[in-house]
Amino acid sequence: MTLKTKNNSILQAVALFLRGRAFTALSLDILRCLLLAIFVSLAWCYVTGRWTSEMWQLPIEYTNDHERADITSLYAGVKAASQGHFIPFLYKTIPELGAPTVAQWNDYPIVEQFLFFFTGVLASYIGIFPAVTFAVMFAHILASISFYVACRFLRLRWLWAFAGAVIFGLSSFGFAHGAHHLNITYYWHVPLCLIVCYWINSEQGLSIGSRRFIFALGVAFATGLQNVYYTNIFVQLVLLGGFIQALRTGWRGILPAFGIVAMAALAFSLMNIHTWIFQLIYGPPDKASFVRLYQHLELYALKCVDLVIPPPDHRSAAFAAFGSRHLQEIVLPPGEFPPPGYIGIVGIAGLFALLLTSFQAVVKKSFSNFPIEAWQILWIFIYSTTGGLNAIIGSTLGIQLFRTTSRYSIVILCIILFYLVKTLTKQVKKITFLGYALVTFVTFVALWDQLPQSISEQHINETEFAVTSDREFTNRMESALPKAAMVFQLPIMEFPEGPVPGVPSWDHFRPYIFSKYLRYSFGAMKGRPEARWQRDLTSLSLADAVTKLRGLGFRAILINRNGFPDKAKGFLQSLSTLGQSQLIESPAGDLVCVVLAG
Question: Is the dihedral of CA 231, 236, 241, 243 positive or negative?
């Protein structure tokens, strides 16, 4: 081979590489998924400021952000998992909590046990805060990759799929829920659920035993392991498609839908079997672990207006001001804070395009051309909106579990993005350079619209101060108390979801997060004898209560000043008159520990 021939071979190989012919289609998609993961992670780090190891050691959310106060429960669950106390399918017993007994979390149904477990395993190596931060970032990455893979399963064009994946993975919904609702932020499986719904709604449907059906069973099982809100709407959309098939082909057409629903139910049951066995042996608690009121079904329902109102932390000052004014005017809140319902400029444009297509089909009486996406969104609104089917079920049958149906805005966004990708794939046969430029521009406009404002230096400093205060306070307690000493916590609060004025539901977990040796009274399940005895203390005089605590083996009383109208000044004075005056105070001044003498 001459030098000239060799050079020509190299040039041809380079040309083939640049044109993508050296790769199989699968290899190209894997490469694009890798690029997608890198892009999403960089965008996420840009918003959260996670560029240094010091920032990764700082929690992404903490108690200084009152709208995200649920974050403390996540850290407690991850810590329990890191210590081997939170293993899927097994009893959840936390010896460091619920003193003087041990906390049994078996009445508390947590479907997303694998999420807590794997995050806890990671935390045992790198720490709780970095592990949770990585879990949040990975949720965005996984959502974007899942959307892209789902589109490619439907043989949609990769360019549109890539753009849609970026928008879906970096949705404002994901940032609004973040770490404090990590189980909600893991919405990665929604695109895969929609694949199953598309297949079951297609003319050929799903055949039992086919590869598609087996794939659908796998998706159903994975969905059953995720947050129950997603399982609920997935089951409904599958049954909707099954009924459509039954109308087309007869009653046998709904059998695949029943099989898919049964698989999701099986996975859900496996995640709750330890709770059912525990209550079968020990009986149900005196009061329900969850207290759901009908009014919540109206307050936190899906509202159409929430889809188009930008959040108050929007990057645009004008958009942010508009969103803030809206929050001041409304009677019914947008479900959760920060508001998670906004579907963005691209989502709103796609929704109007879908409505226009649907309207044209109705005008032409061409109902076979009525988009399946329109039927799906219509059903979601019928079920989820204020006063809708969910409210009817809650008021008539008393089933009030699904109170926050505003969370289905992410399902609506996914449906809209799928519709846009499908439409563009069908109508745009050839993409020019101008087309690539336009897609890039629209994607970055969507990111500008969806990504929240970057974390501020002030917020970082406030978080660092709050964390440092809790860590130093806990270290001082452990230095002053014997190993495995029991600490009684005030004000008395129920677990789970038992806030008192001034103290969020999970705030008593704060010292546990940093503790190595101590045991705490908070965390025993309400309605069980392990927690009921604390309420009995309120009928005793302070001197008798202190005597009883000492008799049970408690060595200290930990007080959250925010739970007392006078910041516990009177209570501490009363303890001092009883000879209990050795205090340990947090640098922030909100926590104080009284070391019990005698």
Answer: positive
